[in-house]
């Protein structure tokens, strides 16, 4: 026991702190030792480059699906003006979030992500803040993955409706399609780990080709007619949602949803070399690249949109299959385009499942969820946290059962994904600002003393507004079906995490994530060491 105290104290000497600080500088020592200085040991395979990380981020955004699946909200939000201007505005605002997250990911390149950043930056109540943000982050990862996979199932059922307009999948049929999607992603992510970087490259190539094909096909066919530039870029009908002058902001929802999971790639930090540079590069480049690609997708839509009232009645609430069928002039033409989008959605499901499973694994590694030792296991043969993947898949499938009882309640789980991710982003950004950006200023990748605070403040303001947007019903008047219960579900999840903290985490005399102590200041380290010595 005495030897343990001696080893603990000597390991956290001023010299050790100096080494820990140097370890955070890119290229000072091997990435595995960098990770060790942050308090973890290398368990996953580092097989990703900055290109594959960027492509994974773009795969998660899945622009044709991310913007297209919730496009009905933009129609309620006024139509073409909200689609086009909303895309531009949201991309600018989301880039501020991306830059803010990139700094933090560079300073602390670990799969733990926002809750680890919060722990390191907070001056007091480190365990409480980190634990709560960890659960928010975990819930956001689970529910945003759920939204992608269930959206994929809805898109598949809407594709059938292109040939059979009077048919719509019942709740059981939709659930079974959803289960098939979840199991497919699980198998690919479990047994195809070595091929996932290549899949991300294929996804990026496929997405680029898809956008070009859609641009040409819609522009040439224009089955519903071609609109003037004044209509395509400026038509705004605020009567559709019932929100009056606020209607435009409802139209921001599709673009905001598209890039809501941009920070999830931070969970891949332990699977690439030089993560202190490559991860922030991928995060910061995603939106500039994605926004330009997205313009080539939304512009042909705006110029060839069918009548807005018809889109609002699209089968399964999916606007894109309906638009493609009408604009192409036949179900076959529409099917050709929607097939391209479905493949992108499959890639998105794979990429976001991988990222969410790494978040689950990292949180379990920090002993913050029940049965943590089980979920934190990494299969040595596959190089994958199989049990975390399984937990993620099972939770999605269980939550999917809610749709059998109430579609509006289930929709709340979809919306809460964006809300939870946004809140998880905001906590370390706010703490960093509160500390005058002391920690991120030491990062290898930093926005600087002038641009940094500006993008941080804009990011926090935009996140606050996003929370309002994603908690509101899309249209008025509100009914039991159209009511948005996202805020209620989010509070419910927070109550569960608070209960777990009360019965487990708060009983820990030291920070819950004991190994994370390695990354804090020497004063904290010596203080912890002295406390332990005194107790003994």
UniProtKB/TrEMBL annotation:
Q: Does the keyword Transport apply?
A: yes
Signal peptide start and end residues:
none
Q: Which GO terms describe its biological process?
A: glycerol metabolic process
* Annotated region (Disordered), positions in chain: 1-20
**PANTHER family per the record?**
AMINO-ACID PERMEASE BAT1, TRANSPORTER, PUTATIVE (EUROFUNG)-RELATED
Task: State the UniProt keywords alphabetically.
Answer: Membrane, Transmembrane, Transmembrane helix, Transport
Record localization: Membrane
Going by the entry's taxonomy, the superkingdom of the source organism is recorded as Eukaryota
Its placement in the membrane is given as: Multi-pass membrane protein
Q: Which segments show compositional bias classed as Polar residues? A: 1-16
Protein name in UniProt? Permease
Pfam families cross-referenced by the UniProt entry: AA_permease_2
The membrane-spanning stretches of this chain are 50-66, 81-102, 135-159, 171-192, 199-220, 240-262, 282-299, 334-356, 382-402, 408-431, 443-465, 485-505
Single Gene Ontology MF annotation: glycerone kinase activity
């Amino acid at each position: 026991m005495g030897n343990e105290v001696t080893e603990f104290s000597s390991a956290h000497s001023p010299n050790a702190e100096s080494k820990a600080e140097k370890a955070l500088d890119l290229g000072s020592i091997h990435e595995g030792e960098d990770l060790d200085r942050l308090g973890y040991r290398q368990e996953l395979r580092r097989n990703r480059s900055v290109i594959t990380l960027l492509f994974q981020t773009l795969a998660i955004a899945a622009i044709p699906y991310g913007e297209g699946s919730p496009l009905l909200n933009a129609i309620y939000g006024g139509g073409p003006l909200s689609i086009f201007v909303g895309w531009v505005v949201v991309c600018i605002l989301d880039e501020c979030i991306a830059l803010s997250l990139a700094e933090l990911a560079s300073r602390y390149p670990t799969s733990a992500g926002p809750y680890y950043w919060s722990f390191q930056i907070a001056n007091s109540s480190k365990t409480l803040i980190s634990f709560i943000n960890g659960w928010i982050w975990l819930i956001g990862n689970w529910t945003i993955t759920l939204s992608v996979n269930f959206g994929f199932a809805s898109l598949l059922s809407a594709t059938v409706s292109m040939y059979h307009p009077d048919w719509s999948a019942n709740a059981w049929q939709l659930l079974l399609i959803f289960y098939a999607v979840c199991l497919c992603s699980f198998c690919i992510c479990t047994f195809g780990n070595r091929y996932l970087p290549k899949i991300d490259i294929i996804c990026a190539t496929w997405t680029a080709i898809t956008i070009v094909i859609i641009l040409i096909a819609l522009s040439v066919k224009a089955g519903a007619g071609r609109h003037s530039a004044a209509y395509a870029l400026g038509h705004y009908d605020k009567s559709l949602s019932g929100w009056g002058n606020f209607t435009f902001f409802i139209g921001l929802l599709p673009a905001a949803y598209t890039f809501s999971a941009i920070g999830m790639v931070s969970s891949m930090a332990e699977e690439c070399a030089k993560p202190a540079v490559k991860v922030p590069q991928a995060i910061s480049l995603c939106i500039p690249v994605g926004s330009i690609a997205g313009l080539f997708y939304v512009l042909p839509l705006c110029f060839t949109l069918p009548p807005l009232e018809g889109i609002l009645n699209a089968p399964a609430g999916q606007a894109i299959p309906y638009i493609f069928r009408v604009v192409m002039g036949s179900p076959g033409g529409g099917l050709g385009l929607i097939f391209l989008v479905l493949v992108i959605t499959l890639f998105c499901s794979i990429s976001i499942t991988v990222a969410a499973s790494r978040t689950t694994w990292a949180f379990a590694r920090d002993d913050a969820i029940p049965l943590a030792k089980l979920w934190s296991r990494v299969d040595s043969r596959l190089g994958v946290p199989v049990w975390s993947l399984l937990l993620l898949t099972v939770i999605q499938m269980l939550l999917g059962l809610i749709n059998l009882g109430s579609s509006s309640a289930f929709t709340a789980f979809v919306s809460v994904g964006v809300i939870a991710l946004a809140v998880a982003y905001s906590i370390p950004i706010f703490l960093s600002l509160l500390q005058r950006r002391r920690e991120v200023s030491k990062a290898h990748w930093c926005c600087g003393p002038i641009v940094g605070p500006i993008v941080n403040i804009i990011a926090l303001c935009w996140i606050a507004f996003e929370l309002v947007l994603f908690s509101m019903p899309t249209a008025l008047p509100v009914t039991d079906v159209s009511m948005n219960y996202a805020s209620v579900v989010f509070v419910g999840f927070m109550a569960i995490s608070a209960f777990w903290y009360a019965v487990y985490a708060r009983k820990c005399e030291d920070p819950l994530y004991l190994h994370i102590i390695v990354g804090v200041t020497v004063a904290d380290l010596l203080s912890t060491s002295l406390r332990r010595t005194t107790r003994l």
